[in-house]
Amino acid sequence: MIVVALATNATIRAADTRIDVSKIIDKAGAESILEEPVNAPAPRNVDGSDGYYSKCNYYSTSGRKRLVLRVYQAAEGFDPQKELEAVAETAGAMRAISGIGDKARITSGVQAGLPSRVVMLYVVKGKSLVTIGISGVDDENLAAEKIKDTAQKIVSQL
Length: 158
What we know:
CATH superfamily: PknH-like extracellular domain
Oligomer: single chain
Order of helices and strands: HHEEEHEEEEH
Number of domains: 1
Largest sheet: 7 strands, antiparallel
Number of strands: 7
Mean pLDDT: 85
Low-confidence stretches: 1-15
Shape: globular
Number of helices: 4
Radius of gyration: 16 Å
Strand content: 25-35%
Strand order of the largest sheet: 1-2-3-7-6-5-4
CATH topology: Protein Transport Mog1p, Chain A
């Protein structure tokens, strides 16, 4: 059996599988995380000159909460670690999280330059950078635990 693969984009790598983050964390999953009903999302999966992007935002029907999911799968010659370093330079206070991916950093609230009631998590695994944000939270510690669990689900698919 001979298999021939043609690619129009040089960013495709055999070791990487392009993922659709909205299929990993679907509407029901987002509702569980936000603890509120959410509107239908409008996910986007696109190729860029620096790699592949999968993006999805979930907004609660009340408009009070939002879940932001991003996965960047870097093309050859691009380094997701450098992307994380760039975020860390501008994000202010970030703390390391162990047990998720190769490197993970979390930040929250006004001390990190974010609006209050916002938690952001960044995870590098291999050639991928996962970004998860949740806003409108009443308890930043609970939100941090929820997005860590969410990150584990996404990272397990990389």
